[in-house]
UniProtKB/TrEMBL annotation:
Stored Gene3D superfamilies: HprK N-terminal domain-like, P-loop containing nucleotide triphosphate hydrolases
Summary of subunit composition and partner proteins: Homohexamer.
InterPro entries hit by this protein: DRTGG, P-loop_NTPase, Phos_Acetyltrans/Butyryltrans, Ser_kin/Pase_Hpr-like_N_sf
Pfam families linked: AAA_26, DRTGG
Organism in which the protein naturally occurs: Dethiosulfatarculus sandiegensis
Domain DRTGG: from-to ranges: 214-317
Name listed for the protein in its UniProt record: DRTGG domain-containing protein
Length: 357
């Protein structure tokens, strides 16, 4: 049995979708496996037992037949945090080790999917770094390539993990960054002894978010479009310009949400007419009956939030990553991207695994 840990040095790096895509491809290569989040931060009750909601979705999607405890033996709940703060923590690391040893019996791979960053879980003694070093698990770091500063984090992680680091996968690579990644970043990391096992392109579908989840993230009050909450939002526009520039600003875009002040009925109407998939009104201002009526005619969901436009825009930065496992089309796309973007020969060599197909 081989232990693999998928972690990141920054949150919202794409660990869940990558882990699911990796697991699906490994299964297609004839490997038997189990998937577990050692430490979960998305508590969900299944048959009176708390597990991690994302880990449970992975289990259901891959049809692994695991129990809630097997999916996530340590879940960050308010009770767990309270116990830790009072100094009443248990030996959670022992619980994790016992569980993955049990799940590894008769399987080729146990895939451990990290939560947050490699530091997450440290307050209860189950941080990613500690787990990797104590268990001898091979670590795959996945991170988003947004600028060169991520290299500092990767190098720092590599120094801590040493031989436990199998390599890195660069996620969400913009097309214009491909040349720099290939010609500069990958050779630089190779000189530092860090293998780049793959690169996944930035994808509009994977960064999209449903109207329903968007409303949950923002704590918004939906006013119209209740039958269209599964609509996927792929981009956001902030309607702060003069209305005369609106048509050029939206530019025929599709599947977009417009974030606009509730006191800007002119921009609200312009966004609806331009084909907005959703309207987010900030400042707790409610729209006029004319706006509501026109939105209903165009099947445009409208929601109201209390916060100002700037605050809401900041909270939307990683909205798509929070909705990653709830959409079957995202899971399918992630599996395809992992298949195309990961060098599985290099990955299996780094992990010491022989595929069976």
């Amino acid at each position: 049995m081989k232990l693999i840990y998928v972690g990141s040095v920054r949150a919202f790096a794409g660990k869940n979708l990558f882990s699911l895509g990796l697991a699906r491809n490994m299964m297609n290569h004839g490997l038997s496996l189990a998937v577990m989040k050692p430490y979960g931060s998305n508590p969900q009750a299944i048959d009176d037992t708390y597990t991690d909601g994302d880990a449970w979705i992975m289990n259901e999607t891959l049809e692994l037949g695991q129990t809630p405890d097997q999916c996530c033996p340590v879940v960050r709940t308010q009770d767990l945090v309270a116990k830790a703060l009072r100094g009443h923590s248990e030996d959670y690391m022992a619980r994790i080790k016992a569980m993955y040893e049990e799940m590894g019996q008769g399987r080729d791979v146990v895939l451990l999917c990290g939560t947050g960053t490699l530091r997450s879980g440290a307050m209860v003694g189950v941080g990613g770094y500690k787990l990797a070093l104590e268990s001898g698990v091979k670590v795959i770091i996945i991170d988003r390539y947004e600028n060169d500063f991520f290299l500092d984090d990767l190098l720092s992680a590599a120094l801590r993990l040493k031989d436990n680091l199998a390599g890195v996968v660069i996620n969400a690579v913009d097309q214009e960054m491909n040349a720099a990644l290939t010609e500069q970043v990958t050779p630089f990391l190779a000189k530092q002894g860090i293998k780049v096992l793959g690169a996944l392109p930035k994808d509009d579908l994977l960064s999209s978010v449903s109207v329903r989840v968007l409303a949950e993230i923002l704590g918004a009050k939906p006013l119209t479009g209740f039958s269209h909450t599964d609509r996927m939002i792929k981009r956001f526009f902030i309607g702060a310009m003069q209305v005369g520039h609106a048509s050029r600003f939206f530019g025929g875009a599709r599947d977009f949400a417009c974030l606009v002040g509730g006191d800007r009925p002119d921009m609200q109407m312009a966004a609806i007419e331009a084909g907005a998939a959703c309207l987010i009104l900030t400042g707790n201002f409610y729209p006029s009956e004319i706006i509501i009526s026109r939105a209903e005619e165009h099947d445009v969901p409208v929601m109201v939030v209390r916060a100002d436009t700037f605050t809401v825009s900041r909270s939307l930065e990683f909205a798509g990553m929070r909705d990653s496992l709830s959409q079957p089309e995202k899971i399918k796309r992630a599996t395809e991207l992992v298949k195309e973007g990961v060098d599985f020969d290099a990955l299996y060599q780094a992990l010491g695994i022989k595929p069976k197909k």
